[in-house]
Amino acid sequence: MTSGGALAGPFENEVTLSFEVNGRRVTRRGPGHLSLLRWLRDLVGVTDPKYGCGEGVCGSCAVQVDGQVVSSCIVLAAQVDGAKIETASGMCGDDGSLSGLQQAFHEHHAAQCGFCTPGMLMAAASLLEDGRHRSRDEIREALHGNLCRCTGYGPILDAIEAAQAGREATGPRAGSETKLVAG
Amino acid sequence: MFVKPFRYERAEDLAHACEILRSHGDGAKAIAGGQSLMPMLNTGLLDCEVLVDISHIDLEDVGVRDGYLELGGLVRHARLASDSRVANSQPLIATAARHVGNARVRNRGTLGGSLAHADPSAELPLVMTAIGAKVLASNGSEVREIAAEELATSFLSTQLAEDELVVAVRVPVLGEGWGWSFNEITRRLGDFAVAAVAVLLRTAEGKVLEARVAAGAVGKTPIRLGGVEAALSGASRDELAERAQRLDEVDPPSDSNASAAYRKKVLGVLVRRSLLEAFDRAGVGESGAGGADAAESGAGESGSGESTDGSGRGEGQ
Ligand code: FES
Ligand code: FES
């Protein structure tokens, strides 16, 4: 676990922030001007949220903050001190097993280079959370803020539809996304 | 994303926030949801010495009192889009909020932030201009009321003083006989609008009695379309299309999103569509009913239930 690295201080504007990241409490000291994305990647060492655009438009940095999906690149870390943060890697079981949604992405080849995948997973998990059935068009529309430069989106939509069908067959809270949606 | 370092200060309450802003003058910026400010900081369009976090101040009330809907400055777009009191009292606001950015933006971005940022293509300043909202601004000790239409003075500029914050917005509840419509054209869903239109229309016996028509993304601020409004008085449904073309005073900008000529062309189309839609809703009688339905069907993540065709829905996302 890094706790400085590229960001070795001291900085004049340091703050101490404490988050619960994927169920683990992590307190770090660092510059107060960091986005949540940089805080997670550079200070906490959670690198599945990716830096794509830094402007909130591509979705590759998507995480959940207290249960709501946000672009972590345009959330100031200090503003959400104390929050519960869930990232795509938090969807895995403790033994590293894949969640139903992750498994569906795997089976439908919904990741090529994989750069957009953590954000796509977060967007999909947030969408399916309320258990309401979404048509393919609704899923497509809900993902309009997540860019993928590889797949052409078809396989991603296939995967999300399959994960939705899987949940509808086994109950809305089945699979290890329960961990993610609990908050 | 190599942001020029700044100091972070969390405001405990409104007076504290205004005090910090006052003491640092130009060097301080207020951050609420940060959905416009953070991209500007990340891309180096803006820097500051101190960033004052106002998001923990208690300004998130939504209430209906004495014929007015009052919205706290820190109410987030997702809430505007899903709260039934908003949809029932001013469906234009709920609908416009569903068009803002993407689900992630709507989860963080705030009403006051959008108004203070004053992007001429933003949805909320536009509908507030159309509705004739009152913006309440406070410097911590005094509150003043600003007509939404006069809040923005130019591109990304407002008449707010350095130490003033938008604490609330007050709009009249939509009355009997009124219809409404919001439409925008974007190159891709969630992009900045190429042109956007908000309409409120009151009809009786098949004729327009009163109209408020405003447009976004076609000037330095959202603008009222005075020529169209004046021409509408007494118009029947069949006359709306022709009167929608009274756009002489509009002089849109050209930028990477669209040329001035294209903007003006689609503006005419949007005004026509919006007038027809508002007219038909006004005729239905119960003015709030359409909005409540729309809110229910669009209350989930999908956000943009009512996007105009031509917005590129379903293309490259
Ligand atoms: S990196 Fe955050 S949205 Fe693109
Ligand atoms: S798989 Fe490469 S960007 Fe989506």
Key features of this structure:
heterodimer, A: 183 residues, alpha+beta, Ubiquitin-like (UB roll), 2 domains, 6 helices, disordered N terminus, B: 317 residues, Uridine Diphospho-n-acetylenolpyruvylglucosamine Reductase, domain 2, Enolase-like, domain 1, 5-stranded antiparallel sheet, 13 helices, 14 strands, binds FE2/S2 (inorganic) cluster
Molecular structure report:
The complex is a heterodimer of chains A (183) and B (317). Chain A has helices at 36-44, 100-107, 117-128, 136-142, 154-170, 177-181; strands at 14-21, 24-31, 62-65, 68-71, 84-86. With 183 residues, chain A is an alpha+beta fold. Chain A has two domains: 4-86, Beta-grasp domain (Ubiquitin-like (UB roll), Roll); 92-170, Orthogonal Bundle (DNA polymerase, domain 1), CATH 1.10.150. Chain B is an alpha+beta fold and 317 residues long. Mean pLDDT of chain B is 90; it is low at 286-317. Chain B is globular and about 60 Å long. Chain B contains 13 helices and 14 strands. Helices cover 34% and strands 24% of the residues of chain B. Chain B has a five-stranded antiparallel beta sheet. In chain B, strands 11-12-13-14 form a four-stranded antiparallel beta sheet, with helices on both faces. A three-stranded parallel beta sheet of chain B has the order 1-3-2, covered by helices on one side. Chain B has helices at residues 14-24, 37-42, 77-82, 84-89, 91-98, 103-108, 111-117, 123-131, 148-151, 226-232, 240-243, 260-283, 289-297; strands at residues 7-10, 28-31, 50-53, 62-65, 68-72, 134-138, 143-147, 152-154, 157-158, 165-172, 178-186, 193-204, 207-216, 223-224. The chains are: A alpha+beta (183), B alpha+beta (317). Chain A binds chain B through residues 11-13, 15, 31-35, 37-38, 51, 54-57, 59, 62, 68-71, 73-76, 78-79, 123, 126-127, 130, 132, 134, 137-138, 140-148, 153, and chain B through 1, 3-8, 10, 31, 34-35, 38-39, 41-43, 51, 53, 55, 78, 101-105, 107-108, 188-190, 300-304, 313-314, 316-317.
